[in-house]
Amino acid sequence: MTEAVNGGINRSGKDGSESKSPASDPIEFGTDGWRAIIADQFTFANVERVAYAVGLYVKEHYHKQAARPVPMLIGYDTRFLADKFAERAARVLMAMDVPVKVSSRDVPTPCIAWATQHEPTAGALQITASHNPPEYCGIKYIPEYAGPATDDITERMLSYLKHTPDHIPHSTDEVKNFDPQPPYLAAVGEFINMKRIGSSGVKVGYDALYSTSRGYLDHILKQWGVSVRVLHDWRDPLFGGGMPEPKKQFLRDLIGLVINEKLDVGLATDGDADRFAVVDEHGNYLSPNQLLCMLTRHMVRNRKEKGAIVKTVATTHLLDRMAEKYGLPIIETPVGFKFIGEEMRRGDILIGGEESGGMSVKGHIPEKDGILANLLLVEMIAYEEKPLSQIWLELQQEMEMKFSFVRADLRLTKATAKGLMDRLNENPHLTLAGEKVSRVGRKDGLKLYLDDYNWVLIRPSGTEPLIRLYFEGNSQERVDAVAADFNKQVKAVISELEGGHPQEASPKSGNKVEAPVS
């Protein structure tokens, strides 16, 4: 049976006045799906529109020539109403004669992604806003190849949004559920040398951050006899008053646990478990750049694997140095794991990663997986039989170069952000801290190179209203000097754009340079 839902273009309010049409709400897909604030743009009406557009795509590209329609999988994270949004999307698809299966509980993005290729499917819809603040929700479509949707797929789906009807029906039939956890963890357990981890005696701290990884990462470790101390392993849509983002400022409890309990490592994931974070035995937060380098070394040194290294333009050039040392190809992509995933699907890739904490490796799915990444890190400790801090020190000694990396966020109004990027693209800086800019990259944003290992990147975020700033070099002093000069020049441009005088004015209220992150 179906039931009409009022999602019309011209709806009237109770007083007879015309209310805001859901079709007038902009639905824009960033680097990894659509995200918006719950009850503002992220509404049931807009979820219905997206689900309907996805249904049109599935019927056209999966069901048209098929003898029997393959199902769509639907998952969701721990956010407010995420399970209800998932059910509504399912009922819209069911009314379109698209069979669906909804996860029986909140599910990690890498798990639902893995499930798309475990059996014949038309891909999956994941209701998640990943690491965004609690007031956000989102939707991402994962095709049957278990990686992020490419731009052509996203554009095709967006074109279908124009064809959503005034009244979108949804089914009242029973929604089928499924549990993707057991086969996913079985596959991960076969990929990772869990026996070696279990016999290593490694002591692990794990902060679930109220995320979907609870009952996954801790479960498999305990299953193999690993000593695990767990924090925040229950659903809280407000994420304990913090953020579901595994950055240092949100991992104070984990850091304290590792230090006080004298653990070997602390692990965490973001809200949907596609990103990961690690704390060493001294409670030091290790950046994603450091972790990618250590895992690359582990894949080559301990697992004896070969292949190209894929990284985004914002990711450390220490990986370039490692590729040179190991005799491996290096591939640089725009920011967004969808570009890394494309490379992983069409070439022999050893590891793919980004500085924001996403990675995957050869033999796994072309989607970032924070659960697998954390387990791979613990596997590395088991192989090396050394503390994490020592492994990092030895890596730098082997590469004969130390790197310093700083990132900052610039919050600007949309007009000022556009004006700044336009101005810098037209007239890039010629010098930084007295050094000549040797070349300019425009693969994603604007990348200014002093040489192969000293550079600056400025680019708009694809998931948040921010301008991202990245600085890397082979000494902290050099990075600090370049960052200070770059910020000075950028503030002068902002001041001009806002009608001030560069030598006097500072950014107006609403425009803010946030503290840098090493």
Provide structural commentary:
The chain is an alpha/beta fold. It has three domains: 2-181, Alpha-D-Glucose-1,6-Bisphosphate, Chain A, domain 3; 198-399, Alpha-D-Glucose-1,6-Bisphosphate, Chain A, domain 3 (3-Layer(aba) Sandwich); 404-513, TATA-Binding Protein (2-Layer Sandwich). It has 15 helices and 25 strands. The chain has helices at residues 44-63, 82-95, 109-116, 151-160, 181-191, 194-200, 217-223, 252-261, 288-301, 318-326, 337-346, 370-384, 388-399, 414-426, 476-497; strands at residues 2-6, 34-37, 72-76, 100-103, 124-127, 136-142, 167-171, 177-178, 203-207, 227-231, 265-269, 276-279, 285-286, 308-312, 330-333, 349-354, 358-361, 404-411, 431-432, 435-436, 439-441, 446-451, 454-460, 467-473, 512-513. It is globular.
